[in-house]
Design goal:
The protein is built from twelve helices and 14 strands. Helix 7 packs across helix 12. The chain binds 2-amino-3-ketobutyric acid.
Amino acid sequence: MKKILVVGAGGQIGSELTSHLRKMYGDSNVVAADIRRNTNISSDGPFVELDILEAQRLAYIVHKYDIDTIFNLVALLSATGEKNPSLAWKINMGALMNTLEVATLYQCAVFTPSSIGAFGPTTPKDKTPQDTIMRPTTMYGVCKVTGELLADYYHQRYNIDTRSVRFPGIISNVTLPGGGTTDYAVEIYYEAVKSGKFVCPIPSGMYMDMMYMPDALDACVQLMEADPSKLVHRNSFNIASMSFEPEMIAAAIKKRMPGFEMTYEVDPVKEAIAESWPNSLDDTCAREEWGWCPKWNLETMTDDMLKVIGRKHKEGLI
Ligand code: AKB
């Protein structure tokens, strides 16, 4: 990767991935693109306004900046997708198709994330294997499975270097997620710091895979830098670092903030989505094929999240 374009750079993953890549590859070599200007990512490197559904503008930007790698992070997430399935299909698939077409024109490598949402209720729930039943029941999941197949198709048919991971819920402290089923695992830290209380939309006992942002960023870079001859799979790899249910994250916070209290007001849409997803993934293939090895767990992540969000709160930033 020498000249990188991050599309959807203003989002939860995009904003941190852009800074991470700029530190590794140089500010001027990482172009951030988003539908609207975002001061966090436009101040220390090139920024372009881009609606990814405009394929010609995407092609113009790739050509202008001599891009060799595109990270496509544009997506409507699972809960929002269920509110407006046709819009989710239009944006999620439109973004990917345009990325793949432009990548074919300019011979770019492409990273586009899949998700635990690619699985469904008939998938084995625990230690979900890499290659298994994928019959999702959400529009988000339908887009993710279609996306995996499309990215593999462009690799086989046009020799485009497409690679991807199935992200779990990503927990971070820079940009808030929006519209996901796993968002509660971010919101709980903010509410703990701001009010000492949290109303959880996910029922007790509902396990989902989660990951701290630094591990997610490492996964993106490590996979895109991996030796292609070692990759048996491409689109997309199971990756995992921790799996927990709401009581466990609440207990980790309570250990550090004894006054913290969590109650439940379950959101039936999120409950149904979470119920259809795996409890935990088996990431053996990612470990064997490109050396995936997460560093964070629930305890170390909770220490860091409360420290960073606590500091932001003291400074009046949240
Ligand atoms: C969501 O909850 O929709 C996302 C995901 C797991 O892909 N965070």
